[in-house]
Amino acid sequence: MAVTACIGLGANLGDAAGTVRAALSAIGALPGTTLVSASPLYLTLAWGMQAQPDFINAAARVDTTLDAPALLAALLEIERQFGRQRSGEQRWGPRTLDLDLLLYGDAMIELPGLQVPHPRLHERAFALVPLADVAPELRIAGHGTVREAALRVGHDAIRVISG
């Protein structure tokens, strides 16, 4: 049976917008997975380590028969295909592609390397604003709906760059 999952996408190296668009296609081509909707692309300020290029962010809503660990493994493989090397990477630093499994149905998952809902999702406008475009009614455990969480975070510095 298919589960609705939501994925956050981000990039700030190279052709970041092109990479995010291509990654959306790659996500839709995963086995047992259908890309239901994708947000517009957003230009967002770097978060955490601010001395780096701005990010292009987006969100995807998929229906998938992959379980959460298999979906995460597939997302990490897509990152590798786009040149991301996690080893030696600076935390919150620049990247060719970052794919985060934000929500997986209404599951609460705590496994090594996989926490769903994403642990700081409710604090991050760069993830919430695009996510509200594709899944406003989904719930973030302990934080209400995506729409409600998005309204609580400041998002003045986020702007749509393409539909």
Q: Number of folding domains?
A: 1
- Morphology call: globular
Main pleated-sheet profile: 6 strands, antiparallel
Just give the CATH class.
Alpha Beta
The pLDDT mean sits at 89
Q: What is the fold named in CATH at topology level?
A: Alpha-Beta Plaits
Beta-strand share of residues? 25-35%
Rounded to an integer in angstroms, the radius of gyration calculated over CA atoms is 14 Å
Structural class by helix and strand composition: alpha+beta
Distance between the termini: 31 Å
Report the CATH architecture: 2-Layer Sandwich
Question: Which segments are poorly predicted (pLDDT under 50) over 5 or more consecutive residues?
Answer: none
Number of strands: 10
The helix/strand order is: EHEEEHEEEHEEHE
Approximately how much helix is present in the residues?
25-40%
Number of helices: 4
The CATH superfamily turns out to be 7,8-Dihydro-6-hydroxymethylpterin-pyrophosphokinase HPPK
Function: Catalyzes the transfer of pyrophosphate from adenosine triphosphate (ATP) to 6-hydroxymethyl-7,8-dihydropterin, an enzymatic step in folate biosynthesis pathway.
Domain 7,8-dihydro-6-hydroxymethylpterin-pyrophosphokinase: 91-102
Enzyme class: transferase
Organism: Pseudoxanthomonas spadix (strain BD-a59)
